[in-house]
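Something for you to look into today, if you have time. What I am after is a single protein written out in full by you. I want to see for myself how the chain folds. Could you add the entry underneath, on a fresh line?
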Amino acid sequence: MILCEIPMGARIIFHGGVGTVTGANFLLDTGSKKVLVDCGILQRERVCETENFAPFPYVPHTIDALIVTHAHADHIGRIPKLVHDGFKGRIYSTAATKDLAALMFDDALKIMTQDVERNGREMLYEKEDAQSALGLWETHEYHQSFTVGDATAEFLDAGHILGSGMVKLTRDGRTILFTGDVGNSPEPILNDTESPEGANYIVMESVYGDRIHEAREERREHLREFVEDVRTRKGVLLIPSFSIERTQILLYELNAMIEEGVMQPIPVYLDAPLAVEITDVFRAHKNLLNQAAQEHFTSGSDPFTFSSLKPTANTGESQAIHQAPNPKIIIAGAGMSSGGRVRAHEKYYLSDKHATILFVGYQVPGSLGRRIQEGAKRIEIDGEHIRIHAHIATLTGYSGHADRDQLLSFVDSAGGSLERVFVTMGEPHSSMFLAQRIRDFLGVEAQVPQAGESYEIDW
């Protein structure tokens, strides 16, 4: 372990989410308490990747608390394993994050069970571990302060997914902020990312630290153009989509275009049972949505449904989609093609020259989605070899992550109190590029930690 010293204070140890986008896992040692921020899986092809079974680099029963920024698997996926291995502290998040995490754990268990049956892999954790984890959970809303050891904590709205919160920890007038994932604000249905103003230290993501998204005014039009293209060709638009947020935003945008009359209805198959359940959580927490989205509910209109939307309840209905007449849209999980029903649709449609596979979210290196996105001509899905003739497209404007310029503006908004930024949760070139921009444009010290590095901070 490398120790980078500054006089006094607490230490941050970077156990995950460095050198890669996924696997967020940061340990804040306050001197009297050990506090984890996030405990996610490394995402590649499968949930049960070998790296996710590795022992934690700390003793779980010595950890006093775990603070969760949001419910994506790369931030929560190893929490049940942490509990299984001995963690007995409190888990803190927003209420929406806990509700979403419960669904995510259950879905991961189903996927792991199938993986065990098909490929003889081991289970990362069991149902009892997930239930035990949820029993340790304590929820707090945005700006509702709570105590962690001798520090005061609160969640700020990250604007990334429903319930996502940046963790602000303050002690003796000194503040450190863990961003989790920073939202791509303004979003169609979420409130904007809040400012880190007053923070002395920021631990932040950098997924798109070296890239910019399409302009806001262009992304809906590009989506409409993809729909009209497959309508003209009487083809299929297949969208691998994350069940949390990307799917709900797509439904919201399609519904809006149909209501506004800029697009005629087209059959939309929502082939993601998890996304259907998660959309219900959005309805239950509609108070967290932005004003425009809430006004739909106030007027009696559900913004996540429309007459041509066809949710599929079981695998029989899922398989029947292939026989349904074209043109049509299929929105299916998982977003990186790492599991779920989208893989069956990819097996069926990737060789179809009339089909378009549209990626709307980040594809981690090593994932099936990334290989398809980068132009592979032949891939293997569950033992079946497929030649790719479908049109492959990417629409980054609907990403849930802030881009290069948004991230720089976010850091700048911290103001004169900011002393140091730790740039994490990105591919190496993205993290290093953003760190250099922070140093060059803002004159703030910025570092890109490596796995296992420990930094002392004056906090």
